[in-house]
Amino acid sequence: MPTLAFADPGMERRRVIEPSQLHVPGAAVLIALLVLLVVMVVRRRSSEDAYVAEINERRDRLKLALWATGERYWDYDVGSGQLRRLLEDEPNGDGRLLEDSLPVDDLVHPDDMALARETLRRYLDGESGRYQAQVRVADGTGGWAWVRVRGRAVERDDDGNVLRIAGTALNVSATREAERERQIAATVLRSMGEAVAVMDADFRYVSVNPAFLRMTGYAETEVLGRSASLLDSEQNDSAFYRHIRTQAGRQGHWSGELWQRRKDGDELLTALELRTVRDADDDSVLHVCVFNDITQQKRTEQELRYLANFDTLTSLPNRSLLSERLSRAIVRAHREDTRLAVLFLDLDRFKDINDSLGHAAGDRILRAAAVRLQQTVGEQHTVARLGGDEFTVVLEDLEKPDDAERIAREIINAFEAPLLLDDRREVSISPSIGISLYPDHAQVPTELLKQADTAMYQAKAAGRRTFMRYNDNMDLAVRQRATISGALRKVLDRGELRLVFQPRLSLSPPRITGVEALLRWSSPEHGDIPPAEFIPIAEESGLILEIGEWVLREACLVLQRWRQHGMDELNVSVNVSVLQLLRGDFVGVVGRVLDDVGIPPHLLELELTESVLMANAEQTAERLQAFRALGVSLAIDDFGTGYSSLAYLKRLPITTIKIDKAFVDGLPHDAEDAAITPTIVAMAHSLGLRVVAEGVETEAQMRFLAERGCDEIQGFWLSPPLDALQCLAFMRNWRPDGLLLARDAPLAVLP
User: Fold this and answer.
1) Using CA atoms, how far apart are residues 738 and 749, in angstroms rounded to an integer?
2) Is the pTM of this model over 0.85?
3) Ramachandran class of 353: left when φ > 0, alpha when ψ lies in -120 to 50, beta otherwise
4) In this structure, are residues 719 and 503 in contact, taking their beta carbons and an 8 Å threshold?
């Protein structure tokens, strides 16, 4: 019979039971052992079932963990290059873990294959502690997804070489895109020209960009954690800033212009946008502030507005702003039933002064004139510069038209005192003023300005340094002036100009010493036109240069013909415009005329007006010296009407002073004229100059001047201006034996 062997866990040897030894009790033991065996099998199966259940539970946990994190398990066989993936269905599916296996080359994007292989090589060579890479893999729908792959070796051979690598893969397409957007946003913030600051609910700085630091001058460590009041400017009170922050908190935004303060204390004007951002999850609050430094922009805008409305030289309103203010003034005058006036001013002979002294000095004259003008009329009235030497004054709330004339007179009187150019130089200049009135003359700004301009030209035609109120007849005068200006351009070609000559008489001894050549214009269409009317037009147009040379040559030719008739000692005096003196080579012109005609230079005398000479004395002196070098005599015409400076007068190479007719008219009865005239004579003699009195019309005037030592006289008492033949006849026939002239004896006419 066979034997049964039982393994006793507590014993190392076997005991053999023979069948013959079995008996009934033995059979019971055998049965018991069989039952025990069955129990043990059942228990083992129960244990295996529990183990399987635990594995399943762990699998479910892994499944849930993978699903929660988005991770995917993979297992890579290094030798075959096969990748086994565990795929899992949705958590509410049937709980199965799906699995597939495919070559890596079929899964990884071709452009990322080199990176995947290089990363694997470095891991297998031990250069890195784990395998990690970001590559694009097929997403199963025909597209590609970015995944972050991580893994470690799970199986090695006896030599330690890696056989299998296992790990997880996470789809990072969304986070990669978010990171890319974050990096772009960060780059944009860093490169923005606008300052950006993020603040917490208490308006403390959390983050700032480089532009913020650049604009404010602070370092980042000096700003973070600090209150936004760090930049508050003293130009706004604290309540204003509190209002801004309160409004931003309540309404979610605030925008506007705001002064802020840099670290160095400088102020900057900013265009600021403040917005409040709330987190819906935790109800947290952040304030985002974006601002630009617009300080320079505002300055530029102000400069542009200034340039558009103000004259840069004088800082007075320009034509544009004048028109705007005049329009508003007319509206007010209409509403309040009041009167206003427009004064149009032009500085007399400014162009001559500007050419003589230079444009820099001319600019200083204009600035000084602007200050003088504004001071005279007061800040309540508008003073504007239209350009060049033209100024306009708008006078409001006038009670009567005469008020405008009173102010115009005050302006002219204010310019009696010389303008100060610098510490050493003064210049004398006068204005001519035209006046128009609202509503008397016009209803709109353009017409008022036009009529005031017309009246100003009439003031110039009346002798300058005066004012005229507009009237309807002036339009006719303006048209006539335009007609004369056109006709004047043809006078030389048509031979319409002629010269007349007025003799000059020396009082001691009595004799005819010379003549003054005077220009006349006789037009076939317009008749005889006075010099006071056409000379200013010739000067303004520049025709005076051509006309002046004709006058000089014609006067010298007449004198030469007289010399041929035995009048050897006569001299001729010619009036010279300052325009001739300052423009071109007039010294050369005079020299050529003298050579061409053939008269001695000392017989020619050039007359220049006092006001222009004195205004330009320092610069004109050099030009006048050139004439004296030629031997030509120089005279100051109309002496006493300008603003003479003895300091300049003694430096000018002048030979003669001519007393203006205005001082002679009142002799001998006018006390002022009787006092001024001898003073001029004495002053001139002290400087070694001859004195000629103009406009002598009576014997009493002649007697008074002779007794006071005047050297020569000129006027209707001796002779009116005559043409060349008449003047020659007069001088030939004049005899001194009709006069007894003595300095220390009464003046008498002998029978």
Assistant:
1) 6
2) no
3) alpha
4) yes
SS3 399: coil
By the 10 Å C-beta count (0-12 exposed, 13-18 middle, 19+ buried), 535 is classed as: buried
User: In this model, does residue 256 exceed pLDDT 60?
Assistant: yes
Q: Which segment of 15-24, 308-317, 363-372 scores lowest on mean pLDDT?
A: 15-24
Amino acid symbol at 578 = V
Handedness of CA 484, 486, 491, 496 (dihedral sign): negative
pLDDT at 577 over 80: yes
pLDDT in tens, 107-122: 888 888 888 888 888 8
Give the whole-angstrom CA distance, residue 340 versus residue 399.
Answer: 9
Decide the pairing of beta strands 571-575 and 510-523: parallel
What is the per-residue pLDDT across 714-744, written as a single tens digit (0 to 9) for each?
999 999 999 999 999 999 998 876 564 444 4
Buried residues in 661-693 as b, exposed as e (16+ CB within 10 A):
bebbeebbeeeebeebbbebbebbeeeebbbbb
CA–CA distance, 315 with 309 (Å, rounded to integer): 9
* Residue of 735, 736, 727, 678 lying closest to 707 (CA atoms): 678
In whole angstroms, what is the distance from residue 596 CA to residue 553 CA? 9
Q: Which long-range contacts (CB under 8 A, 24 or more apart) does 298-302 make?
A: 298/269
> Looking at residue 99, what is its pLDDT?
64
Give the tens place of pLDDT for each residue, 683-718.
889 888 999 999 999 999 999 999 999 999 999 999
Among candidates 626, 580, 633, 630, which has minimal Cα distance to 607?
Answer: 633
| Residues listed for the chain | 751
171 Cβ neighbours under 8 A, 6+ residues apart: 70, 72, 145, 146, 147
The two three-digit tokens of residue 100, written as one number: 């597939």
- Rg of the chain in Å (alpha carbons): 57
- Higher-pLDDT residue of 226, 189: 226
Return the ∠ at Cα 600 (arms to 595 and 606), rounded to 5°.
Answer: 90
Q: Are 252 and 232 in contact (CB under 8 A)?
A: no
Q: Tell me how many degrees the CA angle 105-108-111 measures, rounded to the nearest 5.
A: 100
Exposed/middle/buried for residue 27 (C-beta within 10 Å: 0-12, 13-18, 19+) = exposed
Residue type, 690: R
Mean pLDDT of the chain: 82
Candidate from 224-238, 396-410, 616-630 with smallest mean pLDDT: 616-630
Mean pLDDT of 304-323: 90
Q: What is each CA distance from 295 to 269, 272, 724, in whole angstroms?
A: 5, 12, 75
